[in-house]
Amino acid sequence: MGRLIICTGKRAKNPYYLSGAGINVYSLDEIAFAILRYKTRITTALMSSALADFIENELELPQVAVRMRGLLSSNAGFRNVVSHLLNSCNYADKEKIKQVLAYIDKFYNMKPLEREVLEADEAAEEKNYEEAINLYKRVINTEKTFSSNGFDNLDEDSRTKVYNNAGVCYAMMGSFARASKYFRKAYEVCGTDEALIQYFMALKLAGDDKEIDSQVKLLNPKESILKAVRDLIYRSNADAENSSLYIHALSLEKQYEDGDYAGYEKECNKLFESLKSNYKKANAPLN
Description:
mainly alpha; two-stranded antiparallel sheet; 14 helices; 2% strand
């Protein structure tokens, strides 16, 4: 059986805005939910006396607020504030609290640039693609300082991953032209066949045949790479068509059962022509 979650405190009339997450919260349980989901990305919003005021005045939890002010005034740190807030409500069990505190310990043992990469990766995994892209761009534009390394000082695998993940985020948003630029950067760093396939795949999905011709001549990829791109395009088209084809097939079956044989034959011919067209597009040469 699941654990019963009992809400702590009243629900606020006026919400507290959690910058970093971009959401309003109305209860201590919602704050706990945000901590578990966004973790260190809401550090600034949590390490604020304004949150203590919200907890006291809106949620009417003065003891929780007093303890939080004490932690802030003594510079007790983000980990202790998180522990206090999570242990002040019934939203998370002990294991969840232990996990998030371990994550915070790991996070603050990282180098600054590594932290930003981790936060970008988490935003991407949560499908917050715009946020992830902004974080990846910030990482890419980070220059070396006296106290910390810049993006160019990261190892090859890390730089490839950042460029690739930024490209994936753009692709997931349907912006294939922008995605292709980041996949090209990833290829320039690592030089792998996989990165080159990603690059040509993005160009193909962007419909930029002129650029594909130019890059095929410039990079002279192996035929196996071009074939892999054509195969991926064909499979992606097949996946996209799958649900609509199934619906179309059901409608054809109904037409046949209803005795509409002329309509059935006409729709079958349309479906066949559509399949032929999609196949030809998917298997069109890249050069």
